[in-house]
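Narrative of activities, Objective 1.

The group set out to show that a structural description can be obtained from nothing but a protein's sequence at a throughput compatible with the screening campaign. Below is one input-output pair from the validation batch, recorded exactly as produced.
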Amino acid sequence: MRTSAPTLVGFGPAMTPATSRCSGFARFWPLAAGLLLLALLWFGPLPESARGSFAAHMALHMGLVVLAAPLLALGLARAFPGLIAGLSPAAAIAASLVEFVAVWAWHAPALHDAARADASIFVLEQASFLAAGVLLWASAIGAAGDGRPAARAAGVVALLVTSMHMTLLGALLLLAPRPLYACAEFCSPAAALTPLGDQQLGGVLMLLVGGAAYLTGGLALLASILRERAPSGGTG
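Output recorded for this entry:
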């Protein structure tokens, strides 16, 4: 007597174990990739390099907020879809404000110098960058679901505002006529770049990576709204 393939709860009817394994991989790979990337960023050479180089410090920051954070946010959205999709439109706006405060506060000279000189403050800085980035990307990804135009509009605003203020800060770092941080003089006496050149390279990274990544995310979310509102091509 033939028996039907066993079904697994939560994966739909008549789903075989092999199919469920594929489904599980598709569901959780962003979370695993985000955690792996986070480990490479935090336990690789960048943290040590960041003590002596503003550009390396910026590369670490950008890796957190534009690579690890969106992967972790996507992974959380797949692992806990009800939680992320249930975020209100106000969550995206609040997340963009949190990101704004975190980025500008930690790039103020006093806090930035403290983070490069003290390991415990550096850990606090990096954790706040990651938390703000995950919150912002999670609220935007949660807004991407069907039937949530207000949430998607809020997500667009949040991502575009973040792109604008990161672009502004990057331009400030690039165009400043002198080093803004005292650590540029004493943290890296044997650096290959001058303190001003190192700061300018960091500004370029924020402009090209940070500003562009959030701009791309905001425009992609805006495109989804426009596609939904576009009239169908059918005739009648």
